[in-house]
Amino acid sequence: MSPWKLDPAASRLRVPQADQLNNYSEIAMRHSNIRTTLYATALMFGFAAVPLGTAMAHDAAGSMQKATDNQTVPDKAADAWITTKVKAEFGTTKGVSATDISVSTNDGVVTLSGTVSSAAEKASAEDVAKGVKGVKRVDASGLTVGPAKY
């Protein structure tokens, strides 16, 4: 409760007594101390979270590096180029269904997967992939022969 009161008879603000003002100052000081303590606690927890976040980011980066198998940027670019080139060759080769064959490349090894309509189409897809520059080996074990699609 504020020591400042409105005197309705005089229509003016009554000035508090000195002892009331001290009490009010103590309450204000107490609130100020509580506020300062809360700010300090929030900052402490905020700064404590920074090392934890850094450690989490470091762990995530470590697992991400393991997932890439230590492949360098030029290797990744070469693999992407090989994949694109194999897919383009499938699109221009008669007898090979480019939409039914998935292509991925890792360290120059092309992996083909999907379903083809015949053994001849499977062999043709392997030959086309082997003919692309930069291909070290073709793995067509994921390429299965299934019913012909119309």
Model description:
Strands 3-4-5 form a 3-stranded mixed beta sheet. A two-stranded antiparallel ribbon has the order 1-2. It has 3 helices and 5 strands. By secondary structure, the protein is α+β, with helices and mostly antiparallel strands.
Can you summarize the main beta sheet?
A: 3 strands, mixed
- Which structural class best describes the helix and strand composition? alpha+beta
Query: Could you say which overall geometry the principal axes of the C-alpha atoms support?
Result: rod-shaped
Percent of residues in helical segments?
A: 40-55%
Number of helices: 3
How large a portion of the residues is in β-strands, by DSSP E?
15-25%
Unreliable sequence segments: none
Radius of gyration, whole Å: 37 Å
Terminal Cα span: 87 Å
List keywords for this structure.
single chain; 150 residues; alpha+beta; three-stranded mixed β-sheet; two-stranded antiparallel sheet; 3 helices; 55% helix; 19% strand
What's the helix and strand layout?
Blueprint: E1 5-7, E2 12-14, H1 18-67, H2 73-92, E3 101-106, E4 109-116, H3 119-130, E5 137-145
Parallel strand pairs: 4-5
Antiparallel strand pairs: 1-2, 3-4
Short description:
The chain is 55% helix and 19% strand. The chain has 150 residues and is α+β, with helices and mostly antiparallel strands.
